[in-house]
Amino acid sequence: MAIKVRYFASLKEKLGRDTDRLDFDRVMSVADVWEKVVPAQKMPENTLAAVNMEYVALEHQVNDGDEVAFFPPVTGG
Q1: What is the value of pTM for the model shown?
Q2: CA distances from 25 to 2, 43, 63 (A)
C-alpha cells in the first residue's frame, strides 16, 4: 500500500521538501504517518492534518491511495 504525503507553508520550508511517498503494510494513523516520514522531528503542536482534502484527527486511519497533508497552525494578527 502507498500514500502521498504533502507539507504546506512553514512545514514545507522547515523540512526542505513538499511531498513524500510512503509505502506501508499495516494499518496506520495520520500521526503514524508523520513518525514514519519525519522520524527526526516531533510533529509541531497544533499541526493540522487532512486526508483527501478533508481535515481529520491525528488518530484517523489512512488507506491505500490516500493523500495526507500537514499544515502548520494558522496564525493571524
Answers
A1: 0.93
A2: 9, 22, 10
